[in-house]
Amino acid sequence: MAASRQSSRGSKHQQTASSSDSGYGRPPFKNRMALGAFIADPGAYPGQVIFYDDDFVAVRDAFPKATVHALLLPRRPHDALLQRPLEVLAGNEELLGRLRLAAERLRRLVAAELARELGGYSRRDERRQAVLDGEEAVAVAVRGGGRGSEEEEEEEEQQQQQQQQQDSGLPPGRDWAAEVRCGVHAVPSMRHLHVHVVSRDMHSASLRHRKHYNSFNTPFFVALHELPVPPEDPRRNSRNLPGTPYLARDLVCWRCGRNFGNQFRRLKEHLEAEFDEWKRE
């Protein structure tokens, strides 16, 4: 996922946002404010920024909780510093709509990254991968027995190359986008509003304790398609959520539903096996 810069106002020239453009003072951005650095000057972080424009910046999570984990951050000053996402997004349909569009763009990029990393293992990607690798084209040429003229063979090869370059001509393969989740935490650990766009596998060295896991595998994680949540939803009352049992719940495997209680080490061992099976589907 290479970083790209696009102006939402259609500017043709390259622009780099300064701290003053986004309504923030100069760095340092520390602790819970650390994401502000990407908002203020995304061009300064080419290794971590995936794309940005005047409205949003997408970055790689510095501590990914899965194979591919990205964050989407609004850049407008009045959108960025929102500490209660469920309450704010329930009353701001315009922002929620823009978030959904940008998150869908990021979801496709995350899915493409996931396919590049794991597609070679997946049974559902075998035929597609064979075409991309030229293996299926070689098999067709062998069946021809070499009876055609050199011109016919060259023409056939050109046609095969053109077909391989057209996505519509490739076998469908695995729907990696369906393996990517988009959502927010009911009570974020960082102050700037951000959407998690993350593969569902929960396979990462940065997944280190129960709260990490349960923050993505209990109702504490609120998918974008669930928003806005109704006023009676207990997650809307963020003052009560720090004492919520969500993060202290039993550890339950996201894939098979097996309950590991509070035994995080056993869950991690189990997730290794689940990851191996999942990537091979």
Automatic annotation (TrEMBL):
Region feature Disordered, mapped onto this chain: 1-27, 141-175
Subcellular location: Nucleus
Tagged with keyword Metal-binding: yes
Domain of life: Eukaryota
Record's GO cellular component terms: nucleus
Any one of the GO BP annotations: single strand break repair
Boundaries of every Aprataxin C2HE/C2H2/C2HC zinc finger domain copy: 217-277
Keyword Ligase included in the entry's annotation: no
Main location: nucleus
Keyword field: DNA-binding, Metal-binding, Nucleus, Zinc, Zinc-finger
Alphabetized GO MF terms: DNA 5'-adenosine monophosphate hydrolase activity; double-stranded RNA binding; mismatched DNA binding; single-strand break-containing DNA binding; single-stranded DNA binding; zinc ion binding
Polar residues bias locations: 1-22
SUPFAM superfamilies: HIT-like (SSF54197)
Residues annotated as domain HIT: 46-114
PANTHER family the UniProt entry points to: APRATAXIN (PTHR12486:SF4), APRATAXIN-RELATED (PTHR12486)
Designated name of the protein: Uncharacterized protein
